[in-house]
Specification:
Number of helices: 3
Structural class: alpha+beta
Radius of gyration: 17 Å
Number of strands: 6
Order of helices and strands: EHEEEHEEH
Distance between the termini: 56 Å
Helix content: 25-40%
Strand content: 25-35%
């Protein structure tokens, strides 16, 4: 199974999620007929896995979970004992609660502050 980032094709969904939820990052991925919405919020990460044509296989869920745990989710800040998975026929939601609040923009800002500031005179 290969996940392809299709976020650019779902601009309305991404804009809506960013405007109406606590999400700081929303990305959409596709694996054939299976779509995945990855969300990062200050207190959790979330995966929504859907397939309009058939039930989602457990092997798909595991591969998708592994993909995001390796590439997108900071394992140092999630509470692995509190991960919750909700199943329905064609939609699965996996929530990864964080042990600390870590907004993306603040993290980026702090990393910029660690850089030395050089002033030049003209």
């Amino acid at each position: 199974m290969k996940l392809i980032n299709t976020t650019n094709s779902h601009a309305a969904l991404v804009k809506s999620q960013l405007a109406s939820t606590d999400a700081l990052l929303v990305e959409v991925y596709s694996a054939g007929n299976t779509d995945v919405v990855f969300t990062q919020a200050p207190t959790h990460y979330e995966l929504l896995i859907s397939n309009k044509h058939r039930a989602i296989r457990e092997t798909e869920v595991e591969k998708i979970r592994e993909f995001f745990l390796k590439r997108k989710i900071d394992l140092q800040i999630i509470d692995q004992s509190a991960i919750k998975t909700l199943y329905s026929d064609k939609l699965i939601e996996i929530s990864f609660p964080s042990t600390k609040v870590r907004p993306i923009c603040l993290t980026f800002f702090i990393s910029l502050m660690d850089e030395p500031i050089h002033h030049s005179s003209y």
